[in-house]
Automatic annotation (TrEMBL):
All copies of domain HTH gntR-type, residue ranges: 3-71
DNA-binding region: 107-126
One annotated GO molecular function: transcription cis-regulatory region binding
BP GO annotations: negative regulation of DNA-templated transcription; response to antibiotic
Keyword flag Repressor: yes
Pfam families xrefs: GntR, TetR_C_1, TetR_N
Keywords on record: DNA-binding, Repressor, Transcription, Transcription regulation
Domain HTH tetR-type per the UniProt entry, residue ranges: 84-144
CDD domains noted in UniProt: WHTH_GntR
Protein name: DNA-binding transcriptional regulator YhcF (GntR family)
Xref: PANTHER family: HTH-TYPE TRANSCRIPTIONAL REGULATOR RUTR, TRANSCRIPTIONAL REGULATORY PROTEIN
Annotated source species: Saccharothrix ecbatanensis
Length: 310
């Protein structure tokens, strides 16, 4: 006889407890998380957790949620030797968790569970989550080295750097929101990118401030497009439809807008197939930005030549 859906969910959570992935005191998926992750109704999720509570595997804790009870974890696999834990292992585990669940889902407890160690053992290597995130950013930005020798022209160099950043933002959707332009993280890997881009503009007749403004503007564009990656992935997960499918569903509303006659140009856009994928927007924006920087540098060069000739 086939298990009911709530029984299958309960079994899968129980397997995670028995394997040691979830330890005594760890929070198990909430009813809301179960409805999303298993695509079931709230009643089914509630029944799955009730089954585990009846078995004594989990227990409710006020202000926390449902956690693994001590009885439920007695048969769990022993923890890994905490003496084997290194800062590098910690950062790699945290990156894996953030890649899967985002920074909001990357708690110190969740990372400890991934490593099979006690949560408090992490604090021998980092002071808090903020420090861990900084080390994650530094690690990820250094995953792919900038080419050596560098491309010959300033444009090729800025383009290579921007594309590398874009790839990293795509591979780690939490990275763009975690980085700041107004309070930049002074990390070795981040400064390596900045130095490489500044060097591309050196000798072009620009002041140091202008060079830095150009570098930050390019980075700001790449990051600005990339901050949409994580929300879009979340929407796709929650709704089960792609961005294109969502736009198709909006067709009646768009036609109603066009019918008002108030927006003639926008109405023409509605009747045209326009590619609004993030990759397309990135490619278009990067090319136009580099075009603009090129015109700016050319104008500065001509001005310098005129002044020199006077």
């Amino acid at each position: 006889m086939t298990d009911a859906i709530y029984q299958r969910i309960a079994r899968e959570i129980r397997d995670r407890i028995e394997s040691g992935e979830l330890r005594p005191g760890d929070r198990v998926p909430s009813t809301r998380e179960i409805t999303v992750n298993w695509n079931v109704a709230m009643a089914t999720a509630t029944k799955a957790l009730f089954t585990l509570r009846t078995e004594g595997v989990v227990r409710p804790v006020a202000g926390v949620g449902t956690v693994v009870s001590s009885e439920g974890g007695e048969t769990a696999r022993p923890r890994a030797q905490e003496t084997d834990l290194t800062g590098e292992r910690l950062v790699l585990a945290a990156v894996r968790v953030a890649d899967a669940d985002g920074l909001d889902g990357m708690s110190m407890r969740r990372v400890a569970s991934q490593l099979g160690v006690a949560t408090m053992s992490l604090y021998r290597h980092v002071e808090n989550k903020d420090e861990l995130v900084l080390r994650m950013i530094d690690h990820v930005l250094g995953e792919e080295e900038l080419p050596d020798p560098a491309p010959r022209t300033w444009r090729e160099r800025l383009e290579v750097s921007a594309r590398l950043q874009w790839r990293l933002f795509q591979e780690h959707s939490w990275l763009a929101p975690a980085m700041s332009m107004t309070r930049p993280q002074l990390l070795p890997s981040a400064i390596t990118h900045t130095e490489w881009m500044l060097s591309a503009l050196d000798g072009r007749g620009l002041s140091l401030e202008e060079m830095m403004h150009a570098v930050v503007t390019v980075f700001g564009f790449v990051r600005g497009v990339a901050v949409n990656i994580e929300p879009e992935a979340g929407q796709r997960h929650d709704t089960g439809i792609t961005g294109d499918e969502w736009m198709t569903q909006q067709a009646p509303a768009l036609l109603d807008i066009a019918a008002t006659g108030r927006f003639p140009m926008f109405s023409q856009v509605i009747g045209t197939e326009v590619d609004m994928e993030l990759d397309t927007l990135f490619e278009f924006g990067l090319a136009r930005m580099l075009d603009g920087i090129g015109e700016w540098i050319s104008g500065r060069s001509m001005l310098t030549e005129r002044r020199t000739g006077m």
